[in-house]
Design a protein that fits this description.
single chain; mainly alpha; 2 domains; 85% helix; transmembrane
Length: 88
């Protein structure tokens, strides 16, 4: 955990300063993080009785977030690329 803390606090104060100085950047960060935080609320609606279930739900949420933050943009880029290729 100390490795994570060291990594996080190496850039976190800089990001916080940018957010204080630039309201548009602050809103962009908020919009970017909201889907990830919201996806965690899924855990409030399931009964987790074992470590295996927790691991399963955790991996599922990670995959959901990967899909939201990587899969959807890649899908959009591919669609735009195909559309532009078709136009030329």
């Amino acid at each position: 955990m100390s490795g994570f803390n060291q990594f996080y606090y190496s850039f976190s104060p800089t990001i916080a300063d940018w957010e204080r100085e630039n309201p548009i950047f602050k809103e962009a960060v908020k919009i970017t993080l909201t889907p990830m935080i919201s996806s965690l609320s899924i855990l409030n609606h399931v009964n987790i009785d074992s470590e295996q279930e927790m691991l399963g739900y955790g991996i599922s949420l990670i995959m959901l977030n990967v899909g939201m933050y990587a899969g959807i943009p890649v899908f959009g880029i591919v669609k735009i690329y195909k559309f532009r290729k078709k136009q030329s």
